[in-house]
Description:
297 residues, alpha+beta, Fructose-1,6-Bisphosphatase, Chain A, domain 1, D-Maltodextrin-Binding Protein, domain 2, 2 domains, eight-stranded mixed sheet, five-stranded mixed sheet, binds 2,5-anhydro-1,6-di-O-phosphono-D-glucitol, binds manganese (II) ion
Amino acid sequence: MKLDEFLRLNAPDDLGALTSAIAKSSVDVWDSIPFKTGLLTETNPSGETQKAIDVFSNDLFVEALTSTGHAAEVASEEMEEPVESRGGVSVAMDPLDGSSNVETNNPLGSIFGFYSHRLPASGRSLVGALYVTYGTMLTLTFSFGKGVHRFVALREGDGMSFQLLGVNLKLPDKPEVYGFGGSRKEWVHGVARFWESLDGRGLRNRYCGTFIGDYNQVLAKGGIFSYPALVKKPRGKLRVLYECAPMAFINEQAGGYASDGSTNVLDLAPSGLAETSPLYIGSASLVREVEGSLASS
Ligand code: AHG
Ligand code: MN
Ligand code: MN
C-alpha cells in the first residue's frame, strides 16, 4: 500500500496532510545531505553551532508544513520562535537529528511532534508523532494514536514513492540492545551502575551517536536508549518538545515507556521551547529499573 492511500484511510485530515508534506520534503533533505555538510557561523537556541543541513532542512520543512494550511505554528530546535500559520496543529520539530555525524554518514533523522495545544505544551497534548531515518533506508515511522506504522521510500520512475513496510510495530518482549549517550565519567551515579548490569545479562551495546539511529534499533530489537542526566547537566541534552516527547509518544504506542528518570516524559510540562530533559526510553521493564537505580543512588 502507498502512503497517501494509507493516510486517506487511517489519518485525520490535518495529520495526513502534514505527514504527506513531510514525506515529500524528506526526499529533498536526503538528496541534499552530501552537499550541506558545512558548519555555519550561527548557533541555535540551545547554543549549538548550526550546520548547513540543519538550516536547509529546517527551512524546507517549515515551508512544506505551513503550505498545507494545517499547521497553526511550526516550532523548531533551530529557531528562536515558532513560525505562525493558519491551521489547527502545532508542529514541533528537530529537522535534522544527529547533524554532528553527517561527515561520518551515521544514520541521521528528523523528528516531528503534532500537538493539539499551542507550544510549549505537555506531551499529553500530542495527537501524533513521526520520525524519518535517512540512514540505510529512507523510512517514515509514525503514530496518530492508533499504533505505530512504517513506510519506506522506493524509486519510482524519476521520483520516489513511499510503500508500506509494517503496521502496529511493537517492542519485542525480550530486550536485546542498549545505547547510552554522553561519556561514562559524566553520568550521574545510578546510571553507571545500571549500565554495568546490562552487559552481564546478555544485552548488546549498540550505540551510534544519533538519537534516531539509536532509538530505531531499540524499537526493532527491544532494549533501552538513554541520553542520561549528567553530573554537570542534570537536565540532560535532548529537547522535550522536539525530541523526547514525540519519541516517547511513538515508543508508548509501541508498548514501551519513556522517563526523565522519575516521571513519564509525556507528563512533562516544559515552560520553554528549548527545555531539555534526561531521557530513558525503550522497554518498560528496563526503564522502570533505571528509575529504581536512580532513586536508590
Ligand atoms: P541534534 O543533532 O538534533 O542536535 O541531536 C544530536 C543529539 C542526538 O542525536 C544524540 O543522541 C546526541 O545529540 C549525541 O550527543 P553527543 O554528541 O553530545 O554525545
Ligand atoms: Mn537537530
Ligand atoms: Mn536531535
